[in-house]
Write a structure and sequence with these properties.
The complex is a heterodimer of chains A (203) and B (401). Chain A has 203 residues and is of the alpha/beta class. Chain A is 40% helix and 12% strand. In chain A, strand 3, helix 4 and strand 4 form a beta-alpha-beta unit. The relative contact order of chain B is 0.17. Classes of the chains: A alpha/beta (203), B alpha/beta (401). Chains A and B meet through helix 6 of A and helix 3 and helix 4 of B.
Chain lengths: 203, 401
């Protein structure tokens, strides 16, 4: 009954905000009233940004990263190594790898990981597209850089069964101890993986 | 005599308790009080620290004393100082309910000496054997109860077992969700393969551990059962739902080969047998939308004198079998860890005749600390009562007598 007192434009905004992940009705109304109470400039800036997001950005038709031009700047960069493909779950993972400045190959963004319990299956990810890219030829190595979570591991194992027959080299991102960490406080799983992934020292 | 015992126990908002700080001696402790005053909850709290899971409920919210929570986020804390042969440590489990976008989440934090650890890391610390009056129902009750009982025992000594169980459960629920999806919507069945590898690896480990543990337990339980009953043999019969040692259906109906433990086939062959079975079951499992083989379907039967006690045993026979099992667990834990576990007994004496009561009191003399809950102190011999610390439990408050 209370909502009768609120104009439709406010309730509509509140409802839209509360559909966002991590935002409940309480936070949604707080955000809506914040914008309403004298933050008109911010509201318009947000509106423009949202508009551009929908109008200007799309997914790259090759790697499925978010981009304003298609193909994306990475895929169309002739200076990069087009024989190596790094497979990540999300565009933010791609950014994280780019920030290292150590990788010069191309990417493929899956947009998620296999999670049957959340209703996410192979057909919901960009896996068919990945397979097609590899079949088209020219790719020699695929780095599976899905997260070191059980969903990420599951996805990597499944990708291995699908890509192995195509005759490319398939590697998985190494995993181990955090830099600056203390062995004493590392959990058993991390230590086990670090032991499995140990390397010959060259001195 | 084993030197492991609980020196102090402290509870906040746990079950009937609002707040409890208790010091305990390395000696028998008698908890006296009427029903529903908090005796069982105190035993449960200690078992909770040993197993990382309550043996009485699978719903951890129920452990929080909601009426004692004054404002703020609801929480419960159980902690104990445990003394060992040459060291002491503090074990703590805290539950805290926090609001999230989609409702409420119950967080669980386990610490040993202040360091956050995982549930599996509790293995090899505090060990207990818990005797509950309702354990007699283990014999004839649903198989899931017997599996859980065995899992709780193994979880106390093997962190790897706890991790395998958790990996197994995750892979199982994923595979079941995927099977339903394949049945209803179709899709690439190759998605099953990594999950089947995970199930085979964790499942093989679990069933070999269960087999080895039951192999020991059955020998020990048989010995005590003969003494208790005047000569009747007892066997804990493990019937894995899939036995990679006997992968064909016909062979699976035979008793498992304990001899095979001494010289098991190579792991790769066992894993391959598992995967082949999954492949053979595929159509059936997709149609049913559920995983039909593996440790989650294992069965354990109590057989005495060739009679299945779960189906044909009298209550008295079932009680003897469970008592023999518990005593065997105590001996097994001692063998595995080199230290006697704590004994936690809830109203167990009431159900026993005089001869069995004496055997149990002998047993109490063989461990460092036993905590007994009873409504009737008269049940115990005067000499025993004199050497025990006697505590009155009333409405979640404990007072020395």
């Amino acid at each position: 009954m209370e909502s009768i007192a609120l104009p439709a434009s406010v309730t509509e905004l509140m409802e839209a905000l509360s559909e966002l992940p991590g935002i409940g009705p309480k936070t949604a109304s707080r955000l809506a009233f914040y914008l309403l109470r004298g933050h008109a400039e911010l509201a318009l800036k947000l509106a423009d940004a949202l508009h551009d997001l929908v109008e200007k950005t799309r997914f790259c038709s090759v790697c499925y990263n978010v981009t304003e031009e298609d193909p994306c700047p990475i895929c169309s960069d002739e200076g990069r190594d087009h024989k190596t493909l790094c497979v990540v779950e999300e565009p933010l993972d791609l950014l994280a790898i780019e920030r290292t400045g150590q990788y010069n190959g191309l990417y493929h963004v899956l947009h998620g990981a296999l999670a049957p319990l959340d209703g996410i299956f192979a057909e919901d990810l960009r896996i068919k597209e990945l397979e097609a890219r590899v079949r088209a030829g020219g790719i020699e190595e695929i780095i599976l850089a899905t997260n070191p979570t059980s969903e990420g591991d599951y996805t990597a194992s499944y990708l291995l069964t699908r890509l192995k027959p195509l005759g490319v080299r398939i590697t998985r991102l190494g995993r181990g101890l955090p830099i600056g960490g203390d062995l004493e406080y590392a959990d058993a799983m991390t230590l086990t993986r670090a032991l499995e992934g140990r390397r010959e020292m060259e001195g | 005599m084993g030197p492991m015992y609980v020196q102090t126990l402290s509870l906040r908002h746990f079950r009937t308790y609002a707040r409890l700080e208790l010091e305990l001696p390395p000696a028998p402790v008698l908890l006296l009080g009427e029903n529903a005053q908090g005796k069982t909850s105190l035993l449960e709290a200690i078992a909770y620290l040993a197993m990382g899971r309550s043996p009485l409920t699978t719903t951890e919210r129920h452990l929080i004393n909601w009426s004692a929570v004054e404002g703020g986020a609801p929480f419960a804390v159980v902690s104990a100082d445990v003394a060992y042969r040459e060291r002491r440590e503090r074990i703590e489990i805290a539950l805290q309910q926090t609001p999230t976008a989609g409702g409420e989440r119950l967080g669980k934090r386990i610490r040993i000496n202040g360091h956050p650890v995982r549930r599996a890391d509790l293995a090899g610390h505090l060990n207990v054997v818990l005797f509950l009056p309702e354990d007699v129902r283990l014999v004839g009750g649903p198989p899931a109860d017997r599996r859980r009982h065995l899992d709780d025992l193994l979880s106390q000594v093997s962190a790897e077992y706890v991790r395998a169980l958790s990996r197994y459960r995750t892979a199982l629920s994923r595979r079941n969700a995927l099977l339903k999806h394949l049945r209803d919507e179709g899709g690439d069945t190759a998605q099953l393969l990594p999950l089947e590898t995970a199930l085979a690896e964790a499942g093989l480990f679990i069933s070999l551990q269960r087999r080895a543990c039951l192999h020991h337990l059955t020998r020990l339980a048989d010995e005590y059962h003969r003494r208790i009953t005047g000569g009747a043999w007892l066997r804990l019969h493990y019937r894995p739902s899939f036995d990679p040692l006997r992968p064909t259906e016909e062979a699976a109906r035979q008793p498992p080969l304990f001899e095979a433990l001494e010289d098991p086939p190579p792991r790769e062959a066992l894993l391959a047998a598992y995967r082949q079975r999954f492949e053979a079951m595929r159509t059936q499992e997709v149609t049913r939308g559920v995983t039909l083989i593996g440790p989650h379907r294992d069965e354990i039967r109590f057989i005495a004198e060739a009679v299945d006690l779960g189906t044909f045993g009298s209550r008295g026979q079932q009680r003897s079998a469970v008592l023999a099992l518990h005593i065997a667990e105590l001996a097994w834990l001692r063998e595995m860890t080199g230290e006697a576990p704590l004994l936690l007994l809830d109203e167990v004496l009431a159900e026993l005749d005089v001869a069995r009561r004496h055997r149990l009191l002998d047993l109490i003399g063989s461990v460092e600390q036993t905590i007994l809950a009873t409504t009737d102190a008269e049940m115990f011999p005067a000499a025993f009562r004199r050497q025990a610390l006697r505590l009155r439990v009333e409405g979640g408050i404990i007072t020395p007598l």
